[in-house]
Amino acid sequence: xxxxxxxxIGLALVLGAALGYAALKFKVEGDPLIARIDAILxxxxxxxxxxxxxxxxxxxxxxxxxxxxxxxxGGDVGVRALADLLGVEYKPLNAENGVEKPKAIAFxxxxxxxxxxxxxxxxxxxxxxxxxxxxxxxxxxxxxxxELCLAPCPVDCITMHPIDETPxxxxxxxxxxxxxxxLTLKNE
Length: 188
Prior knowledge:
The protein is mainly α. Among the domains are: about 30-95, Electron transport complex subunit B, putative Fe-S cluster (3-methyladenine DNA Glycosylase II, Chain A, domain 3, Orthogonal Bundle); about 100-165, Alpha-Beta Plaits (2-Layer Sandwich). The protein is about 30% helix and about 5% strand. α2 (about 30-40) packs across α3. The longest helix is centred in the first third of the chain and has 24 residues, at about 1-25. The chain is flat, with a radius of gyration of 26 Å.
């Protein structure tokens, strides 16, 4: 009887140690659902969804505090991808958050820029280069097109220029009209 007790205690210690090791070895950093939702979002960090960036919005979606249709830069394609990922019904883009626009990047008219640095302070991704009382410029490869630099500019020297479609950034737009077979074959 004492032997059985020692065997049970030993087995409990071994299994407890194995579970403790597995918990440390295979620990998941954060919620993987949040990471998957964040990967679908456009990473513009524009705040149009009502959150300060894409990661807080992804967290709110995963926790059920936000709806999937609040991201204008992600557009209809983003809402559909989120609906597919989460297994919920598709909803059209919420007009209160804005409307879907073609992707664009900011452009600063260098002749008009007074070097006030207000646009630098507003840019969430540090895509504006310049110094106080000197002309600024946009690093186009870093610009997400969030338009947050437009409002603080006192001289309206910043404009948004649509990104031209090239073979590098072109994406196939799925057909809007469902494709139906022309002929149906009957088994006879």
